[in-house]
């Protein structure tokens, strides 16, 4: 072929491609475009918390995609997302927040960074940005008071309720509150704001019950805990409430407990660092360790089974999990439930503001989030999550939700539920009072007028 | 249990923890001796090595077959590092080499997770990380079998490496390379072979350290941070001394545990994180080259 022919063919090819592109550009405005609602995903797939991050945010993304594939979005509104890597680093998470705040013509509605220090980093600005801070079971506890924190939600619980539930479980095991006097409980925690978060409630309950409370910090990453466990042994602790993060810290806690002969069934792990990955890191010594759950693991729930069917079965290849075997694990299910909250809030917002089938604004989404209601068994069954979370609803005043959990125990291969029902504080009103006292104090110090809440 | 036995338990536990720090520090010393560079990628190598080991076992190989495979992979990593990272940088400044190892650490971390995934694994070495019964019965002290094993393994490795450096041609070549790359090259010492061997050996040391740390903490990403534990050990022991890091590891391990248990509670705990660095700074003031490091004499 001569060079002229080659040139002619090349030019005609370029011209044809140009014509197709021009036609596509011209035709775009006339095509019916599906409305979209944008969600940011502040993931942590890199670093020591990657097991948690890949599970939780894999669950979030899978549910958003599942709603699009299975239901065509929320009333026809397609769910889109953009990911940013925080590495569980507060400074980096603020960068991500800023970067994801706007996407095209849409503004971010919600921020769910899955880390207490990360939630604290932006809690002061979300109201001004009209962004819901969804700290599902983590974050600043007294933000459960919706009068002071209208833009912050804890659904389904917070850390004060969780520590109160742990102490309630312990007193039940010990035979009653009167048997708790003189008992020694060690709160072994990561030396961060997250590790110290439950202490105000814990100190108060320990004082009321006559419990000897010892607080021992572990500096992250916590791969050496011999000193801490020797102190626990020296103190002849009866129970340890472990408040760690990252599989390395969790695994080391378990093996270090074994090294000093501390029984694992007297250790209660926190939700945040209590998953299959944390137990696997501890190996055979993890058997009998107690772990608190606010979302139950397993594929027996219809929603999880259907997500697996739609996104993974038969090599569908539409799922976000690199290892599909992790579908149904603690972190994955927690991520799915977080996204169920997003979607339910969006559905509520569309309904409340007469925008069914249309994208909503941050303020409208906030109203939708505050209207989250899982008290109807029929609705929980419709969503396929009955039994996976406790029944609860949020209100103007109560941004926490259920405040209840299940206690699980690791049998060496998987978790077994050992609590008969969802369990909360021995005295939930006392915890609520602590929360509201703390929030009111904050409001007073910062000249915040309490929102008038009818309920 | 009498207080004195508890003190001895803390002390012995600290010494045995120190051995684990020394094992990680050994990898740094090997590289520093050959390349005069602080190998930023050593923590990543620990993670990669043990992740490869458990990954190969997951593919169906038994323990004793997986071990040589993992060693082989670490030797290949060492060879690749020499070929693609170090060789192009011969005669460059130490700062350049340091930056190269920082880049290398990201590459190794990424490749490790790309190849084997991010799942947390457990590593069962068949050695119980639980107290030895007869010691407990006789004294009431709780000494872990894994700690004792780590001590024996570290001793064997140090003895082997000491022999390698002092009694072999390679060792003499290594010492020459450590003094001056260019001068060593000019008298015919095969720099690339020395570097390849040393990086491969550091990879094997990383594998051993990773296996012991992984057995205790699980095989997961945080293992890259065990390098933090080695830094004060290196400063105290000297970056070029194999026996130095062993002695320094014991010193750091024992002192940090005693300080944490007996003084830590007065400061709200968490003392052992910064105490080794305070100790290291004190050593820097008195003996900048470390306990057994080579004294640097510069004529002006």
TrEMBL record, chain A:
Signal sequence residues: 1-32
Q: Ranges for the Leucine-binding protein domain?
A: 45-412
Which CDD domains does this entry report, sorted A to Z?
PBP1_ABC_ligand_binding-like (cd06334)
Keyword Transmembrane listed? no
Instruction: Write out the entry's keywords from A to Z.
Output: Signal
Question: Which family is this protein grouped under?
Answer: Belongs to the leucine-binding protein family.
Name of the protein this chain belongs to: ABC transporter permease
Q: Which organism is it from?
A: Bradyrhizobium jicamae
Q: What is the lineage of its organism?
A: Bacteria, Pseudomonadati, Pseudomonadota, Alphaproteobacteria, Hyphomicrobiales
TrEMBL record, chain B:
UniProt keyword annotations, A-Z: Amino-acid transport, Cell membrane, Membrane, Transmembrane, Transmembrane helix, Transport
Q: Where in the cell is it found?
A: Cell membrane
Major subcellular location class: membrane
Superkingdom, taxonomy of origin: Bacteria
Q: What Pfam families is this protein classified in?
A: BPD_transp_2
GO process terms (BP): amino acid transport
Any one GO CC term of this protein is: plasma membrane
Q: Which GO terms describe its molecular function?
A: transmembrane transporter activity
For membrane topology, the record states: Multi-pass membrane protein
Transmembrane ranges, per UniProt, are 6-30, 37-57, 63-85, 97-116, 142-165, 194-213, 233-255, 267-286
**Family statement drawn from the similarity comment of this UniProt entry:** Belongs to the binding-protein-dependent transport system permease family. LivHM subfamily.
According to UniProt, the name of this protein is ABC transporter permease
